[in-house]
Design a protein that fits this description.
- By secondary structure, the protein is an alpha+beta fold.
- It has 4 domains: 157 residues, Up-down Bundle (Multidrug efflux transporter AcrB transmembrane fold); 72 residues, Alpha-Beta Plaits, CATH 3.30.70.3220; 230 residues, no CATH class; 33 residues, no CATH class.
- It has 16 helices and 22 strands.
- 39% of the residues are buried.
């Protein structure tokens, strides 16, 4: 029964390993077909080349940049790049001011834009929010018009218009088409006014079309629009304590800027002067909505953390509501509490109850204040998807650079090492692998083929894992990473040597091979786990404390250490268990590597069952009980 149980356990382990390999292979294939992946690992900057960006600080007047600001900017840009895993990008300073970013491969336009975007994150109160009638819109009928054509079906609010609460609260939000604006900004011919509902959706109620002969009232003139915007801005500015004269002057200026702003014009936002102490007219990141915003009240540097996910319910279980959880540092808690207290009291006067998060002079979200948040922990909800919530969380967390940067140059760079150096590195790995194989076959004979097979299995799993990580987490293989893989050959071979030597020690002590395998495994397993744990800890320390190149080495070393442990557990030991029950290995063939005579096993007489005794060490022919008694009788005579 014990032997049968051992066989079943060994076969289950091998089956589990096969499932793991097939699963990784299927994942590689699926990501290649549907996920934009590849069947080969992604290479790093030194092996493949990539793109080099030079970012230059944008300085106004006599403004200067110091070393601390540059270093802070480098750290934030590195966080943006590494937000989805190891990407092996290189970031350095140039001349004490410029920042040079080298990205491996061919980054997508979205990735390039996220890195080079000169970002200042500010929180500003919303005074006016409306559809940009200067921009050309495409209505459902296909014609171009300056105003939207609402439909009779429910529309989903834009993710940028959620509510901010201190607790889980559903949001009511306005889309770009139904932003709350002064009456003077609305055309009298608007066919329907969408209304927000408690579930965060907007429903447009169509009206009966007017007769063809009816002449619609004229849209508000530019003067009327500016007057309405000015009135709203003055109301907001005096609400934060500005004197009437100062508010009138600033409101007049921002109203003219609002009237002249065309969000659909390329580069329109870049021309906006972002003075944190003055109100501004700007656009949403959808480039269809215009805003008038108050002075900056909180900077992005006050944000402690931002994350996305499903909002927990009262019982702690995740709900279907996607949220962005935002927390502020101690220095920002009091400011945020004061802002939400003021805005919460303006719920009857929308959009004055909204605050906009402005990144690079564009509004990325403008939630309503639905509670007074005194602990600095807010929940932004709306019609988010997991991806859009993740994007907003990353913008909030990594968007606040201490100073704005503009893209100076963008160039393609060639590989620093190239294919020749990669071939040399792979050749070195092949030579090392060949030496391990030769040593294993010389030292362990046929048992050495188990080492060869184990290394092959480990190589397959490593290749598949690196390929999957390249697609899912942006991992790129550099020469430092290749070095880690080469070092892993020795780490993996060391585990086999420890195990095989333990088995041979048990055979030398006179144990039968089946018992020697099990006893040797129990002793070797502790040593293997301890050694791999030390390697993994060392890899972890290197990964978190070293620079990017060394991190690539540490990552591959840690990954292959885990793979080594899995291969020894799921392949090497089960294979040896099954081989020990074969005639070739179990009988101690001289080419098996487990020959008791060659190993110098002790001569011990053991009971073999069915009245038979035999030597466990020299594998001599067994003596029967009858012959033993005859020998004993002769001795007495």
């Amino acid at each position: 029964m014990a032997r049968s149980s051992t066989k079943k356990s060994a076969r289950r382990s091998l089956l589990a390993l096969i499932v793991v390999i097939l699963g990784l292979g299927g994942l590689v294939g699926g990501l290649t077909v549907w996920g934009g992946g590849s069947t080969t690992p992604r290479l790093g900057l030194d092996l493949e080349g990539g793109t080099e960006l030079v970012l230059q600080p944008v300085l106004v007047g006599t403004e200067k940049i110091n070393e601390g600001q540059v270093n802070r900017a480098v750290d934030i840009i590195r966080q943006r790049i590494d937000a989805n895993g190891v990407s092996e990008a290189e970031i350095a300073t140039q001349g004490g001011q410029n920042i040079v970013v080298s990205i491996p491969g061919s980054p997508s336009p979205e990735q390039l834009d996220a890195i080079r975007k000169p970002s200042q994150l500010r929180f500003r109160a919303v005074y006016v929010q409306a559809l940009d009638t200067n921009a050309t819109q495409v209505n459902p009928g296909g014609g171009a018009t300056g105003t939207p054509t609402p439909s009779g079906t429910a529309t989903t609010p834009a993710p940028g218009k959620p509510s901010a609460t201190g607790t889980a609260t559903p949001s009511t939000s306005a889309t770009a088409q139904n932003g709350v604006v002064p009456d003077a900004l609305r055309a009298a011919t608007t066919p329907a006014t969408p209304t927000g509902t408690a579930t965060g959706t907007a429903t447009a109620k169509p009206t009966t079309p007017a007769p063809a002969a009816t002449t619609a009232p004229a849209a508000p003139t530019q003067a009327q629009t500016e007057a309405a915007v000015k009135a709203q801005a003055v109301k907001g500015l005096t609400g934060i304590g500005w004197a009437q004269a100062k508010a009138d002057e600033a409101a007049t200026k921002v109203a003219k800027q609002y009237s002249a702003l065309n969000c659909s014009t390329p580069g329109a936002v870049d021309k906006i002067v972002d003075d944190p102490d003055q109100p501004i007219a700007t656009c949403g990141d959808d480039r269809t909505t215009k805003y008038v915003l108050g002075p900056s009240e909180i900077n992005g540097s006050e944000i402690a953390d931002a994350s996305s996910g499903y909002q927990p319910g009262p019982n702690g279980q995740p709900t279907s509501i996607v949220e962005v959880a935002l927390s502020f540092k101690d220095s920002g808690k009091a400011k945020f509490a004061a802002v939400t207290k003021r805005l919460y009291g303006l719920q009857s006067e929308p959009p004055l109850d909204q605050f906009a998060v402005v990144l690079d002079k564009s509004v990325i979200t403008a939630p309503q204040a639905r509670a007074v948040i005194s602990d600095g922990r807010a929940s932004i909800t709306g019609s988010f998807t997991i991806d859009s919530a993740k994007q907003l969380a990353e913008q909030l967390k990594f968007g606040a650079l201490p100073i704005s940067f503009a893209l100076q140059t963008q160039d393609n760079i060639t590989p620093q090492l190239g294919e020749e150096q990669l071939r040399i590195g792979l050749l070195a790995g092949f030579v090392g692998l060949l030496l391990v194989v030769v040593y294993s076959l010389f030292q362990y004979r046929a048992l050495g083929f188990v080492t060869v097979a184990s290394l092959a299995v480990a190589s397959i799993i490593t290749y598949l894992a690196v390929t999957v990580l390249g697609t899912t987490h942006g991992f790129r293989l550099t020469m430092a990473g290749v070095t880690g893989l080469i070092v892993a050959i020795g780490v993996t071979a060391d585990s086999f040597i420890v195990y095989f030597e333990r088995i041979r020690d048990e055979v030398r002590d006179g144990r039968p091979l089946v018992a020697a395998v099990e006893t040797g495994w129990k002793r070797a397993r502790r040593t293997i786990i301890a050694a791999d744990a030390v390697n993994f800890i060392a890899a972890g320390v290197l990964y978190f404390l070293a620079s990017s190149n060394v991190r690539g080495f540490a990552f591959t070393l840690g990954l292959t250490t885990l793979i080594d442990l899995a291969v020894v557990m799921l392949f090497t030991h089960p294979t040896v268990q099954l081989l020990a029950r074969t005639k070739f290995f179990g009988g101690g063939h001289k080419w098996s590597g487990l020959d008791p005579q060659r190993l110098g096993a002790k001569e011990t007489l053991r009971y073999r069952g069915r009245g038979q005794f035999g030597s466990a060490g020299a594998q001599r022919p067994p003596a029967t009980v009858g012959s033993a008694r005859v020998a004993e009788g002769k001795a007495q005579a």
